[in-house]
Fold this protein.
Amino acid sequence: MKTGSRLRALECRACCTQADSTRVTGTCPTCGHALFAVYDTSRLDGSSWWSGLSDRPTTLWRYRELLPVQESANITTLGEGGTPILDLGEVPNAPGLRVMAKDDGVIPTGSFKARGMAVAVSRARELGLRELFVPSAGNAGTALAAYSARAGLTARVYLPERTPEPMKRAVRSYGAEVVEVPGTIREAGETARIREKGRGSFDMSTLREPYRVEGKKTMGFEIVEQTGTEGLPDAILYPTGGGTGLVGMAKAFRELRTLGLLDRIPRLYAVQPEGCAPVVRALVDGAPKVTPWPNPRTIAPGLLVPAPFSSERILEAIRETRGGGVTVSDREILQAMRDLATRHGVSASPEAAAPYAALPKLLQNGALRPGERVLVYLTGTGLTFSLEDLERSLSP
Ligand SMILES: Cc1ncc(COP(=O)(O)O)c(C=O)c1O
Ligand SMILES: [Zn+2]
């Protein structure tokens, strides 16, 4: 059965090259930047599509017309999407803000990375790929391993050597091969691309493959659907590593706007750790792209991304929504993990806790104003982390 997907082509936002979406493609054949799916929505009636969604299952596949998979048989799902938005009310160190949290810690494999991998693995299967690999800080690798197992595909995951053991175990538990690499995800990516050359495998790295961002786009769709345009957050705070989440949400808002479903767009804020904040620095400097961060360090593995790929798109997502960026210390991240758990009953990974830690800072510097509705995106569960181990790993 057809999904009704309106996928039309792939397009590079850097040089406007269009590529055939029916063929296996990674990056732009002309300039090497990220490619994005474009949809033909000329015959899609926005408001009836949107109102008809309420009759569909709650997974992210409810948005199938704006996702790339063509045949329902290729949909590889573990029930991802439809995560709750929790009302946190007013939080003590950021008085006046109306805070809500979208909790992707409850998604299969424990992080929002499931969204991207569910869509990308489904599409990889549809295009006939058999072997996939990814450099990962842990969560993307776990998600790739799980969805590949479900699709009957082979997965290899390149992890920085210092990745927490529970992450390595999780990846292996789904039958994927783990390759450990010294350094950060940057070195893991470089090693992966050298080792995989000529093996007939496909690179599932963030933004080097066009469809993970389509899955992440559903974060934006869900926020709009769940809050309604009336209750839409004024700002969304997002823990930024590779930046695909921000790029995906900005794309979601753009598409909803084209369909006439959105007239106000939430401002997107990148939250990064003080020890690795290349995106925030580029924003402060007004730079067109990110320059690599020297000696990156943080307790949040997913935010240890010193040189994100196609960073122009991350900066574009933030600038076009009139958002911004802010840094938080590892100590503040740890405190936010504790506060989220003990005040609100929510388990957050170090990455996921970073936006909560950023609330008082953005209020103090005037980026957020009292009375505004602010959504902190909880990207992953903290249940696989030990607070004591994280505390010990903090530099004195
Ligand atoms: C829990 C968590 N949050 C956030 C991120 C960063 O995501 P993005 O690549 O969308 O910036 C990661 C990446 O590994 C992660 O695992
Ligand atoms: Zn290009």
Observations:
- The chain has twelve helices and 13 strands.
- The pocket of zinc ion (ligand 2) is lined by residues 12, 14-15, 17, 28, 30-31, 33 (CB under 6 Å).
- The chain has a mean pLDDT of 97.
- The CA atoms of residues 334 and 388 lie 10 Å apart.
